[in-house]
UniProtKB/TrEMBL annotation:
<feature type="transmembrane region" description="Helical">
    <location>
        <begin position="12"/>
        <end position="35"/>
    </location>
</feature>
<dbReference type="InterPro" id="IPR013362">
    <property type="entry name" value="Pilus_4_PilV"/>
</dbReference>
<protein>
    <submittedName>
        <fullName>Type IV pilus modification protein PilV</fullName>
    </submittedName>
</protein>
<dbReference type="InterPro" id="IPR012902">
    <property type="entry name" value="N_methyl_site"/>
</dbReference>
<dbReference type="InterPro" id="IPR045584">
    <property type="entry name" value="Pilin-like"/>
</dbReference>
<keyword id="KW-0472">Membrane</keyword>
<keyword id="KW-1133">Transmembrane helix</keyword>
<dbReference type="Pfam" id="PF07963">
    <property type="entry name" value="N_methyl"/>
</dbReference>
<keyword id="KW-0812">Transmembrane</keyword>
Length: 206
């Protein structure tokens, strides 16, 4: 007796192509998720760095309360705005005495040196590659601002603004104007602000 023949069939070319298409769509979805995750991670890193930079300046202001007014930069962007590199370049050209390394400085000079070194931190001057102008540190388009919203109060705002990876929600209109108008759209501007309370001018410790 002859064995019964069973119907046999393989995958057709069309079925193979459909399977590959489904696999490709799945892989593309995974790639998009990975890209979004990397972007979110980078945004978080930049915010963490900006907060650390703002905290650094806040501590310097608290340590030199006799010249708190000398720290005020305002929010108008210009050559001397921390984050542009101008202050740090001037500081680098100073002698060791001018940098207060080998001689004492008064409180106002110390404040200017603090702003200059903060400028260097904002532009990533501590991390260079191949040449001093090829900086790999810092955060994208960073600007640092110190404001005194009310001249009658010893309250200061220390802000760091930078450019985000994409548009999100713009900073609140009542927040600092640090970096406003520099990053294409308001929704691409990122901002952290610390409130620093100091002593009253002429009071104890000032």
């Amino acid at each position: 007796m002859k064995p019964a023949h069973r119907s046999q069939r393989g995958f057709t070319l069309l079925e193979v192509l459909i399977s590959l298409l489904i696999l490709l769509i799945g892989l593309l979805g995974i790639a998009v998720l990975m890209l979004k995750g990397q972007r979110a991670s980078f945004e978080g890193y930049q915010r963490q760095q900006a907060l650390a930079m703002a905290q650094e300046m806040a501590e310097k202001i608290r340590s030199n309360q006799g010249a708190v007014a000398a720290y005020v930069t305002g929010t108008t962007d210009g050559p001397n705005m921390p984050g542009r590199g101008g202050r740090f370049a001037t500081y680098q050209a100073l002698s060791d005495a001018g940098k207060c390394w080998t001689a004492d400085c008064d409180a106002a000079n110390m404040a200017q040196n603090h702003l200059a070194t903060w400028d260097g931190v904002l532009v990533g001057a501590s991390e260079t590659k191949d040449a001093a102008t090829n900086r790999v540190g810092g955060i994208i388009g960073a600007r640092g601002c110190v404001e005194r919203p009310d001249a009658t109060q010893p309250i200061f705002w220390v802000s760091v603004a930078w450019q985000g990876e994409g548009d999100t929600v713009a900073p609140d209109a009542t927040a600092s104007a640090c970096g406003a108008g520099l990053y294409g759209t308001a929704a691409r501007r990122r901002l952290v602000t610390l409130r620093v309370a100091t002593c009253l001018p002429g009071g104890p410790g000032c």
